[in-house]
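Much of what follows relies on a compact textual record of a protein's fold. A record is reproduced here so that you can trace the correspondence yourselves:

. . .
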Amino acid sequence: MGFVEATGAALRLLLSADPELWGIVGVSLSVTLRAMLIAMPLGVGVGYLLATVQFPGRRLLIVVTQGLLASPTVVVGLLLYLLLSRQGLFGQLHLLFTQTAMVIGQVLIALPVLIAFALSAIQGADPRARETAVALGASAPRIAWTLLVEVRFALMAAVCNAFGRVVSEIGCSLMVGGNIAGVTRNIPTAIALETSKGEFAQGIALGIVLLLVALAVNSAFAYFQGESRR
């Protein structure tokens, strides 16, 4: 099947509401959104603490976090597999080859991105925002909220970046999810499987969906950024 024929078949799959294809999309979005809902408050919170609180080992944590930005997702998957396998430390939880394991893996992948971006954004914020809040007698949570609002665009960019990294990663999902049809098969693992089988139509269809999701997330970020500035 040539490229034109495969693309035509992919569009027909999308328009026909193929249950298998949209089931894969549903698994992918469900896992990624759950992972982001967990990772966002954790990542921003840790980034805020690293930016505003001095404590022993802080510099080491920053260096480690920045180093993990480039960590291969397959290595994260390998470490998590060893922990969740039957002989692993958490083997008794029976989480391997489940969506929960995939969520955990994606949280671990997203955290360094969120922490590093939040840290950089808060350190680069206008110091007058914090000074004004302190001078007005604001509480610690109120000061934190004031700073986070000040750097909201940078934090939104961090969320978009982290979302793009986890929704398209394949190494960790494949290792801890197992690519089980109807259970843990997501968009990237399905694309790899279908391409290896020579079934390009579904792979192209899923690739189109993945591109549309990424475009939608970035368009939403650009829209809210523009509306806020107005």
